[in-house]
Amino acid sequence: MKRLWKATSTGFKLLLLTSVGVVAFFVWGFRTPRLETVWQLEQELKTGIIVNLKKNEKQLFYDVMADYPDYEEFLAGDRGIDILSANIDGRSLTDRIIVLRTKKASSCGRFSLDLSAHESVFPVVFHVQGRTWDRDLTVKGPGRVPVHLPRSVLLPEIIEVSRPDMAIKGEVDIKVRFCQ
Amino acid sequence: MEAFFRRLMGLRLLPAILLCLPGIALCAWYTSSAVLAFKRYEFAQKDKVSLNTEFFHIYLHDQFERDIRWLATPRYSSRIKLSVIEMNVSRSEMMHFLAGAGKETARPWGKAKFAVDGRTYDSEIRIRGTRHWHYVTKKKSIKVKMEEGTLFRGNESFNLINQSEPLIAGQKVIVDIAKDNDVIVPDYDFVRLILNGEDLGVYHLQAQPDQSLFRRQHMMPGALFSGNPSDDADALSLWKSPDAWKSVTTYREGGVLGQAQLKIFLDQLCKSSFAEFNTFAHQYLDLPAFAAFEALDVVFGIEQHGFSENQKLIYDPFRGRWLPVAWDLRGFKHDGVFNRAENPITLRLKMMPEYRLLRDQAVYALLSDDCSVAEVKGALRGHLRSLARELESDRLFSAYKLLPKTSDFAFRMLRPMDLRTAALVTEAEVLSFRKRHSFLMNRLRKNPLFIDVLPTREAASATPSATAETAVVEADSDTIDVPVVVADPEADAPAFITPLVLLVDGAAAAAVQRFDVQWPPDCAEPRWRVEDANGRTVTSGRESGRLAHESILYAGASIEAGQGGSDGLNTLQMVFVPTAWPHVLRSSCAPAKVRVFGRNPVSGAAIIAHRADPMQLAAAEQKQPAPDEVPAFAPGQRTPRPGAIQPPTVTPVVLGPGIVDLPRTRRFAAHQHVTVQPGTTFLMGKMASLIFEGPVHMAGTRNAPVLLKPAGSDPWGGIAITGPGASGSNMSHVTAEGGDMPQDSAVLYPGMINVHDASDVTISNCVFRANRGKGDMFHGAYARNLVVDQMTVENTSLDALDLEFCDARITGLRLQHIGDDGIDLMDTRLSLRESVIRNVTHNGISAGQETRLTTDAVVVALAQTGILAKDASRIALLSTLLYRNRIGLDIEDESDHYDGSVTATADLLYIVGSKTPQKRKAQKGKKPPALDDGYIRYGFSDYRTLRGLFSDVLRIGGPEDLSALFPGEVTP
């Protein structure tokens, strides 16, 4: 390859590099800007169109929040912790709940899930996953269930609360309360 | 092939450079476009932001997207349903227009012509708006001023706005709901603009609030004020002086009056005491209109109507009332507060407890009906669906707020928009609205009624008796132990007193309906009553504890500092504070349980009083200002105790019989119910008037009529029956002559007899004659269900009857020797029967401005024009005779102030002895209006159908007697 390269003329090298540059310029330009992707994800989570985030999508959020602390503050609100997924006053509209916890809420050691459903639905298993940790919660009946948050973790973090066993019939109404 | 590659690999430098140039040029072109676009935005935002890679990528990406869209988007087609405005501007005029981009003030006008639906209009245009989305891109927002004397959609001026909110239909939905709820709001719609042959896509057409607003709102021409403080002025500056308000006045006298009233209004807002403002507001503000407008702001989280912005008010000089104009209705926001913005008007109004309730009821009504989540969702989606085709072909479709809130700069960047994104934003805003709806409903549905039951004591002693046993007093689900004394079985009158404190907290008011008292088993046939703080019995055992009329108890209010914002005034909030309403239960036995039942007067739900907690009781103890204090717009400002300002009690007033001298104007307030006795004669001083704001019964009889005449040689003023409080008034057997017009500082009365803004007023067997001055004899404005039965009017200066925005039935009207029109109608619904109108200088009947007129057994004779119909009016003439008028029937359809044409139907219409029996005029290019010929005759060859008219109305044998009855001719 080196010999081939050396064998080519300066003009050819210039043409090749310029062509690659032009193509790269247009490919890069056509790519969706990351802020636009984050905005779309934010809206889709908010409306329940999507109910979970892929690993690279979560990383995108982390990167943008690292570059723009104001955005982190906006998403997490005054408490420093808030629901990103579709909800009305904490009452989740989707089976999977996405919560953002930031440094501002580092002292907030837990949040609670107020569950209401018919008794036949229980026990329900919830899988709670943070940035570097996860655990399972088995809930035997309706009522308030605390979700303890580990203290020394990398913040901000996106916490997902999901129900792996989607064979459960009936509806479980979940209201999230923070720092309670 | 090999040779080709060999040659390529051996390409020399110069040809290589030439081959690279197009690619490099393209990249340079896009780079410079992106950088320039960024710089333009940065300059418009007046923000110094460096162009980093992220922003450059965004701008580059957007340039690519716009160019692809330009190539791929089909041109608009004639299948598009929106109105298309095709505008042409010459090059030199375009330079004038564009010179306004980015200027704060003094944006120059350029001449333009535009065509819509085949009709061409002349106008002037300038850039509209100072925010970047109005002028940075090709799609500029335009203010259009019509050539004098022409209107477009009934508007003298309007805006074509590049409304770059991502929720495209948000404002349209709110405007439609405002219109449906009688909130005054200018014309608003979607249109498409083609400027000099270039399709600029979908615009929002928003009419400017100007004098055409009165016509659209079916209002009398009045005074419109727009609050425009300068940018560096403080938040209160708008409210300190009328100089900060721009006046758009349509009616000279109304404008003069309005200007004076504006000063009074502003003074009242800033300087009056609680009690003074209460009186002023009830008299001069249309409280339901203000409540409806504020309710819209609350429901949609609109914050555009704060201390310093978007304030527009109308003063109606014929009602003497202020009304708000809804302008800039960008909402769909929620942040956990009821009012996202307050201003002195909303704060002062909410210092009145009855207004707070009215406002909350208006909010609840909206949330339950037009603003339910389903309705709003449906409306937003419906508009987006109907606009889909237009937006798909809009190459310049863009919006801001399409990036995360990393900074204000990024958040406000204009970016290409598409339907998918528009749909996503719509769903997101629907969810926000759901949150707000839920928040507001929860607040309004709260049970606001609480009770604290104090220990029972014997009636004679001042201190509570020692506890012998305890009784359980239940308040809803809570139980309270109450120390009691065993009743004396020999006691006669109520021997025990149990103080009760009813407390209202968390909502505007609670309606108490019933006290339920339960007794210990040894208490036989208890006698009891409940008294309020004034010692008045509100209910007793005899009524089973039910109140005869539910008692509305109000909460108090206080101004609190809100959160956020740099301007303290613009964050103020009015919140409810608990108010205690002491009652006393007097009973022959000590009670075991006391419960109070009522109703939430906002939601209508049944409620039971909860137990009050000590914090609420302590808060209710806090000092409240006196009604004669002047409040401040500052946190901590409380309102007086509800009930401290009492409305005046109804007072009967009797005038007459006999001579009543009135040297000066006498005004009767709404609480004064006046009866004028039969046989009363008013001798009226110079320009003295009778103004009735409450109901008046002028109860003359045939043998003892009520007379009004001048005391001397000077004319007196007039009579005004004015305002909703005067509804139900009547004038019977009243004769009035020699008057002019009432002079009033707040209301214009153009007639000697005036009925304004009152309903169910009856005028019967009255004679009005010989008015002096330059006014009408009888003027009606906003009179609903006005009934006139046997009225004679003669020798008038101007019109005999001038009815504007009225709904009336008239029977037995006799008009003669009339100085202008016999009956002049503007936007009025009138049924006229068995009436004779004669010797009229101009029109016997003039039906203008969307009037609805029916005549039956009516004669109009010796007038310039028998009946004139114009301005999209509809007339139906039944058994009507137009006799010896110069023009019998004139139909004019020339005005473009109104949508629609004149419709005229005639059935049994006789036009006899007229120089011109019929005249029809239409706008250039339009067909003359049609007269639906039912049965029109121009002579009396067959007059059988008029027999009833001759015998019962004219009291003659037949047509042969007409010329004796109506001699002569009309003089030109």
Would you count the extended β strands of chain A for me?
10
The CATH architecture designation of chain A is Sandwich
Radius of gyration of chain B: 35 Å
State the domain count of chain A: 1
The main β sheet of chain A shows up as:
5 strands, antiparallel
Query: For this structure, what is the CATH class of chain A?
Result: Mainly Beta
Give the H and E element order of chain A. HHHHHEEEEEEEEEE
Oligomer: heterodimer
Distance between the termini of chain A: 65 Å
Would you tell me the structural class of the helices and strands of chain B? alpha/beta
- Number of continuous helical runs of chain A: 5
Structure described in brief:
The complex is a heterodimer of chains A (180) and B (972). With 180 residues, chain A is of the alpha+beta class. Chain A contains five helices and ten strands; from the N terminus they run H-H-H-H-H-E-E-E-E-E-E-E-E-E-E.
Topology:
The complex is a heterodimer of chains A (about 180) and B (about 950).
Chain A lengths: L1 H6 L2 H21 L3 H14 L7 H13 L1 H8 L4 E3 L3 E2 L2 E2 L4 E5 L8 E7 L7 E6 L4 E6 L3 E6 L8 E6 L10 E6 L2
Antiparallel strand pairs in A: 1-4, 2-3, 4-9, 5-8, 5-10, 6-7, 6-9
Chain B lengths: L1 H8 L3 H33 L7 H20 L10 E6 L2 H8 L11 E7 L2 E9 L14 E5 L10 E5 L8 H11 L7 E8 L2 E10 L4 H5 L6 E5 L9 H4 L4 E5 L2 H20 L2 H11 L2 H14 L10 E6 L4 E4 L19 H6 L3 H16 L4 H20 L5 E2 L8 H4 L3 E2 L2 H27 L3 E5 L3 E2 L10 E7 L2 E7 L11 E9 L4 E10 L9 E5 L4 E4 L5 E9 L1 E6 L10 E6 L1 E9 L5 E7 L6 E3 L1 E2 L2 H7 L30 E5 L2 E5 L3 E3 L3 E5 L3 E5 L5 E3 L3 E4 L6 E5 L8 E4 L7 E3 L1 E4 L13 E6 L5 E8 L6 E6 L4 E9 L6 E4 L2 E12 L4 E4 L2 E20 L3 E19 L3 E10 L3 E7 L9 E10 L3 E7 L8 E7 L9 H8 L7 H4 L7
Account of the protein in words:
The complex is a heterodimer of chains A (180) and B (972). With 180 residues, chain A is an alpha+beta fold. Chain A has a single domain (34-178), classed as Jelly Rolls (Sandwich), CATH 2.60.120. Chain A has helices at 2-7, 10-30, 34-47, 55-67, 69-76, and strands at residues 81-83, 87-88, 91-92, 97-101, 110-116, 124-129, 134-139, 143-148, 157-162, 173-178. In chain A, helix 3 crosses helix 4 and helix 4 packs across helix 5. Chain A is elongated, with a radius of gyration of 23 Å. The termini of chain A are far apart. Chain B is an alpha/beta fold. Among the domains of chain B are: 2-72, no CATH class; 449-620, no CATH class; 650-798; 803-972, no CATH class. Chain B contains 18 helices and 53 strands. Chain B has a 25-stranded parallel beta sheet that branches. A seven-stranded mixed beta barrel of chain B has the order 1-2-3-4-5-7-6. In chain B, helix 12 crosses helix 15 (419-445). The longest helix of chain B is centred in the N-terminal third of the chain and has 33 residues, at 13-45. The model of chain B is unreliable at 461-492 (pLDDT under 50). The A-B interface holds A 7-12, 14-15, 18-19, 21-22, 25-26, 28-36, 38-40, 42-44, 46-47, 49, 64, 67-68, 70-71, 74, 86, 88-89 and B 8-17, 19-20, 23-24, 26-27, 30, 54, 57-58, 60-61, 63-64, 402-407, 410, 415, 424-425, 427-428, 431, 434-435, 438-439.
